[in-house]
Amino acid sequence: MNIKQALKQKNKLVKKISEKAEFLHKENCVVVGAVRNYDPHTQLTELINETESLVNLKTAIHLANVEVYSKIFRMSELKNLCKIVKSIDTKEGIVHHARYGESSMINYESAIKNQEKIALLEKLEQEIENLQDELDAHNVSKVIL
What we know:
4 helices
């Protein structure tokens, strides 16, 4: 199994664990005489076993990713940086403001211009895309389990 397949398997396990937990909560306590759709003991045993499988799978994925952690962390932080840069206000010139029945004209100037912001975002997004391509290749080629 490669990392890509392991990540898919991990997501499936997470979903199964969530579903089993939901069934367990719904079916454990019922009105006396009511029919249970699922056996809570079976659900709990399966929940414990699948949780153990998830821990083992996540451990294997993390160990296989040691060599690319810097890329994973860099990509995450670049995405965060993109959010910050996108939120930079770059308005320029005179802007009319109307507030609480009063209006005013305010003249703005930005140190970081919109064109500079756009260029930086394009550069960051290109690096993120390149890192994602490298991680995708790693996830397909790196065999675990």
